[in-house]
Amino acid sequence: MVRKTLSDIFNPNQLFTADILVFREDNYAVAVKRGYGEIYRSTNHAEVINYAFDCLTPDRDWIETVCVVGSFEVDEPIKVPSYTRLVINGKVKLKPNVDSPIITNKNFNGYDEEIEIIGGVIDGNNNVLTGENSGILIKGSVETHCKNIRVVGVKVINVKGDGDNGVGIWLRNVTRSEVRNCYVEKCRYGISVEGTHNYQSAIIGNTVVECDLDGIITGLSHEPIVALNRVAKCGRHGIAIDSAKMAKIIGNTVRENGENGIAVFTSINEPPIKPDITGNTVYKNAKSGIWIGGSEKAIVMGNKVIENGEYGIRIGACHRSIIKGNVVEFNGYDGIYLYDAHESIIANNYVSGNGRAGSGYAGIRLANYVDRTIIEGNRVMDEYTEKTQDYGIAIEGSCTLVKVRNNIVRGNKTEDYHFTTSGVVICDSIVYSELPSEGEKPGDTILYYDGTYHYLAIWDGSTWKKVQLS
User: pTM above the 0.85 mark?
Assistant: First the structure.
């Protein structure tokens, strides 16, 4: 056998930047340390990589690098210590019928810091994992949590499990974490960042496809950023945010998932979440495009929410929400559905052609108990040949002090305005006893009282259309 030289095996850049190199030679994994030569070889690949970590400078407060090149099979975890960068140029695959995480932190369920995992393929081999086992699992304790953890450019595939196990990339109880530009496919969950000490987590620029449950999930996280990700064809939610103090969900593309595209909810006994959902494209999900349950000061702005199976944007048990500047089209039920909410603003949205799943749906619907809410400056219409949006704006139940003004509402299948509320709908602070000769522009609304009934009067450009309120 002709023995290969290091220059035959490695990219020259790896030779200069890695403190220790690990490569395959026949069935052996071989570790080579800069300045020392070969330090260990074994057919137990994980053992060699972990030995390489142990040969780095002890008690360091700077990052050193182990570069792994080639294809490896493991039946025990690769345990990355603090102040270590693991660079993978190749694949690490779990052996058949092994129930183990593939990569963890060395002080699992304890404290580690400054860990980087960069590049390569992590393959779970479709083994059914139990007991928290996952592809990459970094876990700190509730008391001593990990911090400064980065996972960048890694491809994780075929990590299966039962219960909450089988996560492609799972960070628990971590402060200041980043998962960026990774690709996760055919895992039980895609990317999960959760736990009582998950502060300042960023999940940015990843692609997650065909996972059994949620594509991206954060739980009990403080101020997570979920941005510029692509999530498709997962079995449950595309992006799920559970009980975060604040959350920014920005610029993601979320499509064809089994339940909601973006789901934001607050667990029992947790304070209301304050989400900022801006600039996302959310389409063809089986249930709602965007669903928020239990929030405060939610911002839903500038999203494209199209062709979802149920609601376009569904918000309930929320206070002081702003729903502004969204394009909401061709969804199965109501375009924008707000219920059991207070002090909200629905403004400057384009809402068209919703109600594709049946009859009785509206472009914008307020229901149950909604008060002190403004619906202003929206374009709500269905001017297609086959109309499906029965009502433009529908207000039902015990809604009160709802201001409807300066909207353009036309062409809807049954009625442009459908009010069956027992509360009060007003257009401004003035009640007209006589209708003006004309409005300033189409969509102008005023409150009109004819001595017997109150009406919302809408100027359509040529006449006032009256909708009886009481």
Answer: yes
